[in-house]
Amino acid sequence: MPYDPLRIFRKLARNNRLANFRLHQACLQLSQEEFIARRVSFFPTLRATLNHIYTVDRFYIDALQGGTLGLAAFAEDEPFATMAELGSAQTELDEVLIAFVDGLDEDGLAATVNIHRGARIQQDRCDDVLSHLFQHQTHHRGQVHGLLSAT
Fold this sequence. Notes:
Layout: H1 5-27, H2 32-36, H3 46-64, H4 83-102, H5 106-110, E1 112-116, E2 121-125, H6 126-149
Antiparallel strand pairs: 1-2
Helix pairs in contact: 1-4, 1-6, 3-4, 3-6
């Protein structure tokens, strides 16, 4: 079978949704106190780590869609106080990402994405931005898994 980057990105978007769902189901079993308890990790709590995933997803998905949200995405460190609120928002964003990837063709994967970074606009190929986004999500979900293992 020939290499098909569209198929791969579509699978990654769906895997992202499934991985988030499974991780969120585990986190929903925690009390609010356990969810916000300080732990040893890059981010000090499960809530902070999961909010970071959401915020960065929002930042990049906006850029992929041609938006100009930029650094305003990071105005609030933890926009969601509870796992239920965060899970609902992340699920919606996961669906937006799937719809975006499903709408791409080969030209879309090669298209330039403008990423608003305050004083400058970074330009990258769409497929490179998607690769970075999926890697970022995987990295931080791994941290959440580690935190849950210690819970």
